[in-house]
Each structure stands twice: as C-alpha cells, then as structure tokens.
Amino acid sequence: MTTAVQRPVLVRSSDRMIAGVCSGLADHLGWPVKFVRLGMILACLAGGAGVAFYAWLWTMVPTADESAKRNARRPASPIAPAVSLPPVPAPGGGGAPAAGFRPGTGNSRVVTTDDAGPLPAAAGAPTVRGSVPVGGPSAGPTLDRPASGVGSIPRGGPDSTAEPPGFGSPSAAWNWSSSGDQGTWASWFTARSIPYGKEILLGAALLLVAAILIARQFGVDVPLGTLIPAAAILGGAAIAWMQLDETRRAGLVDKTKADQAGGWVRLAAGLALVVAGVLVMVSGSGSWEQTWLALLASVAVLGGVALVLLPWGLKFWKDLETERAGRIRETERAEIAAHLHDSVLQTLALIQRRAGSEQDVVRLARAQERELRAWLFSDAAKESGLLAERIKAVAAEVEDSQGHAVEVVAVGETDMTERHEAMVQAAREAMLNAARHGGGTVSVYVESTAGSTEIFIKDRGPGFDLDAVPDDRLGVKESIIGRMKRHGGTATINSSSDGTEVRLAMPSANGDVGGDAAEQRTRNTEARNTEARNGEAKQ
Amino acid sequence: MSTNPQSGPERTVRVVIVDDHTIFRSGLKADLDARVDVIGEAGTVEQAIAVIAETRPEVVLLDVHLPGGLGGGGREVIAGSAAMLGTTSFLALSVSDAAEDVVSVIRAGARGYVTKTISGKEISDAVIRVADGDAVFSPRLAGFVLDAFGTAPADIADDELDKLSARELEVMRLIARGYSYKEVAKELFISIKTVETHVSAVLRKLQLSSRHELTKWAAERRLL
C-alpha cells in the first residue's frame, strides 16, 4: 500500500486514443502516458488480460464531465458538524446516514436539502472496510485513498486497481454487496457489533475446508459426496437469509434503499448454491463425475454469457441507478410542493381574503404554523399516547375554536391512563375558560414526575371569584373541580386581578403518594383565594 | 411586564438585528418601542460578525438559523464575536422550538431566548433586561431547563453545576407556567432583583454544565 497521497481523481481524459482510459490512468498515477499505453498493450498479449482491464476501466471510470457533475451534486461535508453542538461530541459517522434522510430539525434540514434524494451511497463519513478477503487478479498497486468525501469503495473486488478515487458513489453501486446501502450498513454494522464478523466467519469456514482436505491427505475417509452438497445448501441459504436480514436493517437506516441490486445478486448466488447442492444430492454420489461435468459445463456457458454481457449490464445498471436517484429526488420535491400547496398556499390565500379581520388572520396563521411545525419536526416514531401530546392536541383545538394563542410547555413524560384522560378533559375546560374570558396568551404547563402529574393553566384576564359563580354554571365546578375529585385528583383555582391560574394535580396510578401534600397545597391555595377575592366575577 | 427599575424610560439601548428574512427584520424594527435604537442589521453570519464589530451594539437580536459561515448559524456569530461578549449581549430569537437549537446558542453565550411570535413590547422588555446584564427566559426555555436538569432539587451541600437548587427550580417552574419576573417575585415573596439573580444562575449552569445528561438530552430531543 502506498501512503495516502493527494492524487488527481481518476477520470477518462479527453486526450484519447480509444476511450481516454490510458491517459486518464497516467494522469492519476503520475506516470508518462506512453508507458501506460505500452504496458496496456503488453498486458493484452498476456492472455488478453489487458483487454479485460481496459474494458473494465472504460465502463467504470466516468469521463471528466460526468465526474464533475456528480461531485457537484454532493454536499461538501457530511451533516454531522452542523447537527452537533460545539461542546457536544459530534455524533459519529454511523449516525449521519440516519439523520440525513429525515426532515430533521434546524440546521441539518438546511444542509441536507440538496441531498434529500438519497444517492445510493450517502456521503457520510467515509468508511474503509476490509471486505471479503478474495484477492482478485490485482495487477497494479492497491491504492489507499485519501478520505476526500468520496463514498466508500470496497477493496479487493474482482479487480483492485479498478476502483480509483474518482468513482462517484453511484458507480460503485454495481459491486456485489457494496452498493450504497451496504456502505452505510457496513459502517452501521461495524459500529454496533463485532467488527468484521462476516470475514471472521468466512475465515473459519475456509479453515474448516483446509482441515478436511488435510484429513483426506492423511487417509481419513471424509464423506465428501454428502458434505459438499450439504455445505453448498447451507451456504446458499445463509447468503439468502443474511440478505433478508440486511434488507431489514438497511430499511431501518433508510427505507428507500432496501431493494438494492446487491441484494439481488446475493439472492441469486444463494439460490444457485442451494440448487446445485440439491442437484448433487439428488443425483447421488454414484454419478458424481457426471454431475460435476454438467455443472462445469453450465458454469462455463453462464460465464461466457456473463463475460459478453457484463459491460452492457454494468452500463445499464449505472444509468438506471442515476435515473433512480433523480426520480427519488423528484418525488420528494413533488411531495413537498404538494404539501405546501395544500397547506401554506391555501392559508395564505385565506389570509388575503380575510385581511380585514385581525382575529381570523391570527387564528389562521397560528393553525398553519402548528400544522407546518408538526409536519417538519414531528417524530413519526414518537408515541402519541403520551400525556404531553394529548394536551398539545387539546390546546391546538382550543386555539382553533377560540382564536387565542395557547402555549404549551411540557416537562417529563407520562403515559395516558383513564384518569389522565379525565385530567385532559378538565384541562381542556380550563383552557376554554381561559381563552374565552382571559386576555392574551394562555400558558399551559404540564409536569409529569414519578409521583404525580400537574397541569397549570394560566391566563391574564381580569380574574373572577370562585364563590360568586352560580351553582348552575357547570363549567368550573363540575367539569374541572368535580371531575378531578372523582378521579382522585385535585383542582385549585387561583384568581386575582392579574389573571387566573388553574392547577390540576393527579397522583400517579397506585399512589396516595402526594395526597397529603396535595391537600396541604389545596388548603394553602384556598387561603390565598380568600385573600384574592377582590376579582370581579366573570360574565 | 415591567421594565427594569434601573432603566428609565429615557434610556435607549443600541441594538443590531440579525435575521436572514428582510420582512421579519423590518417588521421587528417597526414593532420595537422607543427604548430600543436599531443601529444595524445583518442577514448572514459574515455580515453579522462584521456589523457587530463595526457598530459595537449593546444587544444583538440574533436569529438561531442563519445562512453563511460554516453553517453554524447564530452560534457561529456569537463565536465570531467572542471578543466583545463583555460589552455586547446576545438575545436569541427563533421560530424553532427544537431544544438543541435553543440550548446550543445559549451555551455559545447568548443571554436569553425568546420566540419570534411574542409582541414588540415584550421583545423590547427583553432587550432592556439583557442590556442590564440579566438573563431572559421564555416559558419554553424554562421548560427545556427543567427537562434537562430534572425536577428534583440539589442537596444543600452540593453546589455543582449539574443541578438546580430548590429555589432555582421554583423560579424556573413559575416561569414555565407563564409568570413574569414580577409575578414570580410576588409569588415567592422575594424581590425582582433576586429573581433575576436566580435566573442568571440558572443561565450560567446551562452554559457551563458539562452534565452528561444535558448534552445527550439536547442532542436527542426534538421537542415541539
């Protein structure tokens, strides 16, 4: 391995004899063009290796133009620095792919808009993986690339020299398992569990095979006729199943990448292994030679066909990949446009028509803001069964119906129970009152701790005297105080000329915990209420 | 809402508004009352740093999200003006309610955080308060603080940065409930100055605490 030197990226040069491969390669390696061309011709004489190599580079290496276009699409840096705070250690590269495709919050969203269409390989932190330790017919020096934001490219593919740094990630998508999802998946995988688990497994299998071979050398009778087909079936099934598992995992990282071609290739390989194994088993050890020959023949035919079709196949695949990325981006854009049209544009039109009514305008703006916020920031995975979420929904409803801003601040989380539902209803009633009679913004504060849940609803209205409220008015007495009492909670109302605050408290499910304290506080508040009874009665 | 007793009505505070939306800037300028004198505006990180260095305002009204620079937004402006933190205070202004955005500018050195939806009068009050060296906490920021530090009070003995004292918790709770400083003072039978001291102490803890939960919490949370 050479040390990481900043080399010009490998692109096909415009100074060309046939396709510009040699001069591009010469530029990249810093060798004279003549030597490269000569070497290539010599390699062609060596059993046609040069032809294969040339054809390979022709297909895989982009021209200078293509490469420039591709690089321009990729943001300069992964999003990680933008998301994290300076005093906070940046989330590692493993986290980057996950964040990249969410309409995340704030900065991350801004930075990733360009990359919203998932390119096959997210330009996340470049990961260098030791891939399957199969040394291909590597003719040249293996290059150790500087980590320059180019998507990770596996080493040790069928031809090591054919993976120059110039490769945009899309072009790497062909490579067996090394399509984009695999790239992100691999970093994800290594980040979470044993690094190189697969490689270790493969190594163990190879050692086992070697042991069997040695045992045969020493004359131990190993029933190869059964062992090989069985191993083939096992291996094939393992490959296919592993792929299934990876698809699911990749789906967690990014759903749109779950159906990539690497998966298909592995599925096919697994299938072929299983079929071959079954074939051999069925045909029996008697005609072992015959099966072997048949297999060899079919493999030879398949290999020939593959050799002929490979360049076209790869080219086709690359085009498909590019188009697919473009389409995904387009779809995403269309979705955003549709959403904006349905929501924001409609609201703006409404606001223009109602420009005369201040309250309508404010109400529309608030409702739209809420909706947009929910769409941008809400976490789909977040449970909706939480008290804070319910309170927010109720607050939104009150805000819509009354046209008064209701600000909710929530601390801590608690699951909804029947009693909490009663609490939500009481809170709703209090919010309605506050919005109807109070002035300005209604503040709602929800605090859930292990022992109890408290909700405060505060307005800045003129206040009222609780005792002066006639008994036939169900609002306060029944819907708030009575309801809370029936469900084992308490409600206290503290009203002065500066505003009214309703406090709802509910001890947690099994506890009379805090009952005394709540009672104590109730008494306190009552005492304060008597002091504060200078408020006017509400209408 | 009351103005600080020390700041008479005749006092004006020199302010720079940093926000990338021209419409919002002009709207805010029209909304701010006579106590606030807008001496400069900026729309990007680079512009902001240059304008702040040139005009040396007392207070910078700073949007959390800004184009330009390295993508760090308001945080980067504060970092770029670090030399003036002694004379210039930053008040973060944002539509974003995301905890990590808010907490990150506070930790960078902002003296407070208010949402863009509050009235011109309230913003003016907040500007005066920040100019006087106090901290400005909106109910939502108080909620973030309570969520991050937890609602259990610290022991009397331990005066570390990682927990709030019982009194600070009370103040934060009342602010989260929508109380103004004056109302908090009345409720707790303390002076407004004492409330301001408590809030400043909380701000300091928020800025300096290396509490593991705080950073983790801020990074994980995507609160609405």
Question: What do you see in this structure?
Answer:
The complex is a heterodimer of chains A (539) and B (224). Chain A has 539 residues and is α+β, with helices and mostly antiparallel strands. Among the domains of chain A are: 68 residues, no CATH class; 146 residues, 2-Layer Sandwich (Heat Shock Protein 90), CATH 3.30.565. In chain A, 56% of the residues lie in helices and 7% in strands. Chain A is built from 17 helices and 5 strands. A 5-stranded mixed β-sheet of chain A has the order 1-2-3-5-4, with helices on both faces. In chain A, strand 1, helix 15 and strand 2 form a beta-alpha-beta unit. Chain A is elongated, with a radius of gyration of 34 Å. With 224 residues, chain B is α/β, with parallel strands linked by helices. Chain B has 2 domains: 134 residues, Response regulator (Rossmann fold); 90 residues, Arc Repressor Mutant, subunit A (Orthogonal Bundle), CATH 1.10.10. Helices cover 47% and strands 13% of the residues of chain B. Chain B has 10 helices and 6 strands. Chain B has a 6-stranded parallel β-sheet. In chain B, helix 3 links the parallel strand 3 and strand 4. In chain B, helix 3 packs parallel to helix 4, helix 4 packs across helix 10 and helix 8 crosses helix 9. The N terminus of chain B is likely disordered. Chains A and B meet through helix 5, helix 7, helix 13, strand 1 and strand 2 of A and helix 4, helix 6 and helix 10 of B.
